[in-house]
Amino acid sequence: MNKEMFARLAGYGAFAAIGGLAAVFVGFVFLTVYNGAGIDRTESIIARIAIGLVILLLAIVHVVYARVLLGVAKGKRFGI
Predict the structure, then answer these.
(1) Residue spans per domain, the chain
(2) Helix, strand, coil: what percent of the chain each, to 5?
(3) pTM (2 decimals)?
């Protein structure tokens, strides 16, 4: 296996990680549904926004990293 194949697999893995992050967020939203006990509606919305922003930023970083890795897999050279 050469460097390009590993870069392609890692790039696809970074895209797959975005799906995992989305699943984590959906699970978090499911767990913070207001049910009348414990956390109230306002705190639930604040928690969803806070966690949503963190997951959104992680997803953006994964997209950028995946695009770089797929560029390497296609033979693009970076001056690093």
Answers:
(1) 3-73
(2) 80, 0, 20
(3) 0.82
